[in-house]
Amino acid sequence: MKEKLLGMTLAELKTAAQACGLKPFVGAQLADWLYAKRVRSWDRMANISKAAREALAARYDLGISDPLGTALSSDGTKKYLFKVVCPMGGGFEESAVESVMIPDVDRFTLCVSSQAGCKMGCKFCMTGRQGFHGQLDAADILNQFFSIDESAELTNAVFMGMGEPLDNYATVARVIEVLTAPWGFAWSPKRITLSTIGVLPALKRFLDEQRCHLAVSLHNPFPEERLEMMPVQRAWDIRAVLDLIRQYDFSGQRRVSFEYTMFAGFNDDKRHADALIRLLRGLECRVNLIRFHEIPDFPYRCATDPAMEAFRDRLNNHQILCTIRSSRGEDILAACGMLAGQHSEPS
After folding, report:
1. How far apart are CA 230 and CA 125, in angstroms?
2. Active-site residue, from 118, 212, 285, 336
3. Which helix (H) or strand (E) element contains residue 216?
4. Is 12 in the active site?
5. Architecture per CATH, 3-61
6. Which fold is adopted by the domain 69-332?
């Protein structure tokens, strides 16, 4: 299997060029064609000689592939399905991942997958319920940016698709480098948000090394109740996650938010709101309330609109900025917690 160029840093692209007997400046040309111009074929690289392109193509693959399919929601959200081949158990496993393009008035946001499946096992998440099928490499992740119809229009990215980004942190960090480096996409880190359930060792690395926004999946302020839904609570207590986050400054351009999926009769009452207020008191943050999207063989239902509004208002009245997030793409199984590597047309 050929090594992929997509996902290589500028230094690595220069080394790749030298490995083919070419000058290092060819690596800089490759970075320009791949990341600035986003070409999808060797033939488009006009300032690289045909002989050089042939030498590169004999040794490397660009790492770019078309989606297997798409599904368009009635609200304009678009879901893409991609084939991936991941190392698993000493061999390779073919799987499928999804990414979601969310259009808005002045932005196009890509919800990106970082793993095929997920190890975390959150009971309300379709991705977690399917198990783990492998780590995506940098090309697999960046291909989600390259191979969608809206590639040139993207303004933001959220690592909130399939998988736990911090469980594949080294690769995600490489992708963030490509997205933010002047030789790459040259995006501001403010255009990128990483969502995590709180993988503590990697979370510290992320907070030390990156300037991107952070979103933490919290969902319940009581540890024993959170454990019922999120097995990760046993390994990384949400209180320890918050202790770490409090060591960093979120009063400037980098933001931290907390995702809170609302379940009727489970985490949507005054007792939970007050506990959440106590848990987050003094932290510069935002809470996003998320409507639960029903999935098969799961007993809980979404909280009612009045319950969500009362919860929101109670947090806002205690100086914790809280909003109810609009659901997007539910009719094509593209909303929060619904990604499962399946192609779905709107019903």
Report:
1. 10
2. 336
3. strand 213-217
4. no
5. Orthogonal Bundle (1.10)
6. TIM Barrel (3.20.20)
